[in-house]
Design brief:
Elements: H1 10-15, H2 17-28, E1 34-43, E2 46-56, E3 64-69, H3 76-92, H4 97-105, E4 107-111, H5 116-120, H6 170-182, E5 188-196, E6 203-206, H7 218-231, E7 238-241, H8 252-263, E8 267-275, H9 277-283, H10 300-321, H11 324-327, H12 331-345
Parallel strand pairs: 3-4, 3-5, 5-8, 6-7
Antiparallel strand pairs: 1-2, 2-4, 6-8
Helix pairs in contact: 2-3, 3-10, 6-8, 7-12
Length: 349
C-alpha cells in the first residue's frame, strides 16, 4: 500500500508525477532519509517545493556525493534517474548491512527536482523564462554560439540568462547554496547533474563550459575515468570537457567549481551526465513531434534500460567517495594522469 501524499491537489500530481514519486520516497524513507524544502516557486497557481534530501554520515568532514536532476523542466528523465537511485538505496537498506556501513562513512545529497515549475509547465526554463543553466554570474572567456550560449534578450527566447545584474533565480540560488553549504570545503565532494538532449551517446561532462582551458583538477577527473573504465570496461559513456562540444555563459557548475578553487580547501569534482536523447529519436522519429519526446525516452522498455544503465555509475561514485584515501593517494599518480588527460582531451589546444 502506498503511503498517503501531502495535501496537494490530485490534478497537480497527475501533471507532475515526479513530485508525487518524490513525496512517496520521503514517506518510505522516514528514519534514514532526511528532507527539507530549500526553496518554493509558484507556477500554475501552485506553490511547488524544491526539496533537498540527504542520507548517510553527519560528520562535517565526511566525503559527500550530490545527485541533481530536473534543472531543465523538459528533461524529466534526469529527475526520474535520480528518483530511481533513491528508491534503489531505500530498498537495499532493508537487507544490506554493507550499504549501511558504506553510508556511515559517506554523506549523500539529492535534489531530484530543481525546476518543478518548468517541469509542470513543460518548458526548459523556469516559470519566469530563465534557463537555470545559463543563470550563474559567470561569463564565458571565449565567444559562444549566439542564443544557445546564453543571452539577455528576454524570456520569450530559449537560453535566457535572466536580467543583467539581478540575483540568480530562486531555483539556481537554492542549488548553489546547498552545494556551498554541504559540499564545498569538504575533503572530497562529487556532484552528478543529470540532463538529456544532446547527441547519440551518453556523455560525462566536466567543467569548464565557458572556456577551453583545462581545469586544475584534470588529473583527478582522469583518475576517476580510468577507475570506471577498469571496473566497467563495456560502458558506453564518453568522458570529456563540456567545452569540446559548445561553450556557454552562466553555467552553474562553472560558477561552483570556481568558488571551490577560490576557497582553496578540499577537492570538488562536478560532473554532468548528458544522456544522448538523439538516439531515442533516431529509433522512434515520431518523438520529434512531441515536446517531451526530444528529451525523454517514450517507449517503456527504453526508459527501463536508462534506469538500469545509469544506476551503476551513480553507485560507482558513491563507493568511490568512500575510498578517497586509496584512489587519491600519490602526487606522482596525479601528475602522470594530468599529462595523460592533456593528451586525450586537449591535444589540439
Amino acid at each position: 500500500m502506498q503511503p498517503p501524499l501531502p495535501n496537494q491537489p490530485a490534478m497537480l500530481y497527475d501533471r507532475l508525477p515526479e513530485l508525487a514519486q518524490l513525496e512517496r520516497l520521503i514517506a518510505h524513507g522516514q528514519g534514514c532519509l532526511r528532507a527539507q524544502t530549500v526553496a518554493e516557486v509558484r507556477a500554475g497557481g501552485h506553490a511547488l517545493p524544491v526539496k533537498l534530501l540527504s542520507m548517510g554520515s553527519e560528520r562535517p568532514d565526511a566525503p559527500v556525493v550530490g545527485f541533481f536532476g530536473g534543472v531543465h523542466g523538459l528533461e524529466r528523465i534526469g529527475t526520474q534517474v535520480v528518483l530511481a537511485f533513491i528508491h534503489n538505496l531505500l530498498m537495499r537498506l532493508r537487507w544490506d548491512p554493507l550499504l549501511e556501513h558504506q553510508l556511515s562513512q559517506v554523506r549523500l545529497l539529492f535534489m531530484p527536482l530543481v525546476n518543478p515549475g518548468g517541469m509542470l509547465q513543460r518548458r526548459r526554463a523556469n516559470p519566469a523564462g530563465i534557463d537555470l543553466m545559463r543563470n550563474a554570474p559567470v561569463n564565458a572567456s571565449e565567444p559562444v554560439a549566439w542564443l544557445v550560449g546564453g543571452h539577455r534578450l528576454g524570456g520569450w527566447l530559449p537560453w535566457y540568462r535572466g536580467p543583467d545584474g539581478e540575483d540568480m533565480a530562486a531555483e539556481s540560488r537554492a542549488l548553489c547554496e546547498v552545494v556551498a553549504a554541504e559540499m564545498l570545503g569538504r575533503p572530497l565532494a562529487l556532484a552528478l547533474d543529470c540532463h538529456s538532449g544532446f547527441g547519440l551517446r551518453d556523455r560525462i561532462w566536466f567543467p569548464l563550459a565557458g572556456s577551453r582551458r583545462p581545469i586544475d583538477v584534470l588529473g583527478e577527473i582522469y583518475t576517476l575515468k580510468t577507475l570506471f573504465d577498469q571496473a566497467y570496461p563495456h560502458h558506453r559513456y564518453v568522458f570529456e570537457p563540456q567545452s569540446r562540444q559548445y561553450l556557454t555563459h552562466g553555467d552553474l557548475w562553472d560558477h561552483l567549481y570556481l568558488q571551490s578553487r577560490q576557497l582553496g580547501q578540499g577537492l570538488f569534482l562536478p560532473l554532468t551526465l548528458e544522456m544522448g536523447s538523439w538516439n531515442w529519436v533516431r529509433k522512434n522519429p515520431r518523438q520529434l513531434f512531441s515536446r517531451l519526446g526530444v528529451f525523454n525516452p517514450v517507449a517503456p522498455h527504453r526508459q527501463q534500460r536508462v534506469m538500469r544503465t545509469h544506476l551503476a555509475f551513480m553507485e560507482f561514485l558513491t563507493r568511490l567517495a568512500g575510498s578517497e584515501q586509496r584512489w587519491l593517494a600519490g602526487h606522482l599518480r596525479s601528475a602522470r594522469h594530468r599529462m595523460d588527460a592533456m593528451h586525450l582531451w586537449y591535444r589540439d589546444a
